[in-house]
User: Fold this.
Amino acid sequence: MDKREQILASALRLFVEFGFHGTPTSKIAKEAGVSNGTLFHYFATKEDLIKELYISIKNELNQFLFSKITPQDGIEAVIKKVFIYFIYWALENREKNHYIQQVLFSPHIFQIPESVAMEQSQKHIQLIEEAKATKVIKDLPTNLIYTLTNSHLMGIYNYVVNLPTDEQKPIIESGFDMLWDMLTEQK
Amino acid sequence: MDKREQILASALRLFVEFGFHGTPTSKIAKEAGVSNGTLFHYFATKEDLIKELYISIKNELNQFLFSKITPQDGIEAVIKKVFIYFIYWALENREKNHYIQQVLFSPHIFQIPESVAMEQSQKHIQLIEEAKATKVIKDLPTNLIYTLTNSHLMGIYNYVVNLPTDEQKPIIESGFDMLWDMLTEQK
DNA sequence: CAATAGATTGACTAATCACTCTATAAAAGT
DNA sequence: ACTTTTATAGAGTGATTAGTCAATCTATTG
Assistant:
């Protein structure tokens, strides 16, 4: 792992444990095994570090999610895969998931340029639009569906994260079914 | 408003705008119109201030929610009222709602004693237990219902907060219906 | 009214921290 | 081989900040 990544990895661990305030750049550098100066060679400011860490995690997550879908998947299968694999990713990458939330509810979120935020949600928005267009799901505002899906995901995650591994799967599955029932017309 | 409350009010505003790190105690004191020393007379540490602000907001919210229910309300009506009024409270108290989330996804949350956290969720848990016992809602784990309800609430709030006032009500209403459908047996 | 307790002030301090700067080493380019 | 660029180190710095303290002011009480 190169120094830049080493720094990001240490920053992640420390920010999640001690918060942005509670984590001096010196401590990050130390834990990453680099000097103070090196940290500022890669990241001009601490704020930059916070921001780039957020962006890199988001990108990693998106790449992971969309690597799981195959061309022959129908829209429902795609959405289900994105849902299910998000939970598994979050469970395997708890710190990263926590970090995303931490930034989301902090003033640092305003440092993320609108364009970057858009780019990251774009593919998800497209999925919803497609599902709406093909009448698979209800005709609710796209943003409402997007927001509700995200919060439902966080809800399921928050519950299963405290469960023993073997009890997680059924909850995750029925978690998806609940959402799906909510988004599709009742027959 | 006495000085203690003045300090809490200023802290709220500044913490939400600039974050915990970005808000020096001196700035809080200044904005509250008290001296530095006075702030530390009421709150031994900055951490204490963060913690007590959180607890006071949570208590205020709970008191508000349960003041809305009347003895003749059935369990469904009670749950609906708690749901709907939470959204209205959050819309009227955006900073307070934001602050709660901010603490929730920060390391400061670990400063809140377990007992206080329990006390605050207890009444909500009881509602769910009662609804389950009277077979009004599905027999899912209470904690799962609690978590899903909370995240659904946040989802609805996040959506309606950007809407013009007159478009909020129908979304909030159908937001409740969606949740209710999810939690009750399909007929 | 005297005495005690609590409230308030603001200057002060010890510590911390983000970031700079200079020096050197390594890599890349020509 | 020589020059330029990039990477790394780590001591140093100026600014900031949480929290202290001694002094004064303001109720409250016996």
